[in-house]
Specification:
With 387 residues, the protein is α/β, with parallel strands linked by helices. The chain is built from 14 helices and 14 strands. The chain starts with a strand and ends with a helix.
């Protein structure tokens, strides 16, 4: 199967051996970050540094004049990725014979929430999530669609992978997270991720739900959970906590909001891209799920995008709902973590890839060529050589 490895520009720039080393793994493609959230990352082989701290969400290339005068706009990176860091790395990687695709993080941006608090998701208690832009707000949607088009279609790129193109919620590795004290479960996570900004309140109202009553119902439903009661699993658990009619109304609003944003962003990328440019989404087949792998309706998303990248570390069953669509030519890329220290299993990559292929995967994604140790990369190299 065609295999791509995720890479940051700072893994490549300043390391004259990086591009050849990545190509030597046996991958045909790299998915190179062009717009990314704040992070702290190890660079275990770089000759100049060992830790890179990206202080805020940023574009890793010079943004163009389309943003002039706009209150919502991407920020340039600091010294962790100066100038056209993406372009410099892309040139090196392409020179090593690798096909370069962009990696674009969208609705995950703590700086946006800090500078423009009104753009953030607001839970039923009134707490804002600055890392999670509310994708129902028209100005935020316009910003995300424009960012997708600009960041995806960089010079020389042959495709893109759009991450976080949907709802973000409570669950998020944010600074020093201290939110695991109560087991919220799938249903509790959903309730704590419901947004009550003015646009979402209007959306609930249009579906026959009084937003004040809904917020009160969410708080009441969560009271036993705060005391330690289990919250139930899956969508049935949401219905048990909130009541089936209310749960259905919230999901209808959120699913439609995500679908229309996904459709608009993919269309904007296609309009800006050359013919044959591939557009994939990092996706979860359960539409009410939040996070980097945005919840999607498999049938809808495969009618809009060229395919999906699906998290498969620990099991590849999430591929099945996409494979069932039988969409000819669709890319179903199984995303496998190959960094042992981050819960990956590079030593079983061959077996995991075979299992993913049996469940419908057509390609592999490996997270992450820059973060992995030498031993992890050797396991990857051996697995791809054997396969």
């Amino acid at each position: 199967m065609k295999t791509s490895a995720f890479v940051y520009p700072w893994d490549v720039n300043g390391d004259p051996e990086a591009a050849a080393r990545i190509a030597g793994l046996g991958v045909a493609q790299v998915t190179l970050a062009a717009a990314y959230h704040s992070t702290r990352a190890l660079t275990p082989r770089h000759p100049r540094h060992r830790v890179v701290t990206a202080g805020h969400a940023a574009v890793l290339y010079p943004a163009d004049a389309r943003w002039d005068g706009r209150p919502l706009r991407p920020h340039p990176a600091g010294d962790w990725a100066p100038g056209d860091a993406y372009g410099q790395a892309a040139e090196s990687l392409a020179g090593a014979g690798l096909d370069v695709h962009t990696w674009v993080v969208l609705a995950h941006n703590s700086r946006l929430g800090a500078e423009h608090p009104h753009t953030s998701v607001v839970n039923a208690y009134g707490d804002r999530y600055p890392w999670a832009p509310c994708i129902a707000q028209p100005a935020t949607r316009a910003y995300l669609v424009e960012l997708a088009a600009e960041a995806a279609v960089r010079p020389g790129a042959h495709g893109t992978e759009l991450e976080s193109l949907g709802w973000y919620g409570l669950a998020h590795l944010h600074a020093h997270d201290k939110i695991a004290g109560v087991g919220l479960g799938d249903a509790g996570q959903y309730l704590m991720s419901l947004c009550f900004c003015p646009d979402c309140r209007a959306g609930y109202g249009a579906r026959g739900l009084d937003p004040d009553e809904l917020a009160a119902a969410v708080r009441a439903a969560l009271e036993p959970v705060w005391r330690g009661a289990p919250s139930g699993g899956g969508w049935a658990g949401v219905g048990e906590l909130l009541g089936v009619p209310r749960a259905a109304g919230t999901r209808e609003w959120r699913d439609e909001t995500a679908r229309t944003l996904q459709t608009a962003a993919v269309a904007a990328v296609r309009a800006a891209a050359p013919r044959g440019f591939q557009v994939l989404l990092h996706a979860d087949p359960v539409s009410y799920h939040c996070g980097a792998n945005a919840g999607v309706d498999p049938e809808h998303i495969l009618s809009v995008a060229d395919g999906v990248v699906v998290p498969c570390t620990g099991g590849a069953e999430a591929l099945t709902p996409f494979a069932r669509q039988g969409r000819e030519g669709a890319v179903l890329a199984a995303n496998l973590t190959v960094v042992s220290g981050m819960g990956g299993s590079p030593g079983t990559l061959a077996e995991d890839a075979a299992r993913a292929r049996d469940l419908g995967a057509t390609e592999l994604r490996l997270y992450h060529a820059g973060l992995a140790s030498d031993d992890d990369l050797e396991s990857v190299r051996a697995a791809l050589r054997a396969g």
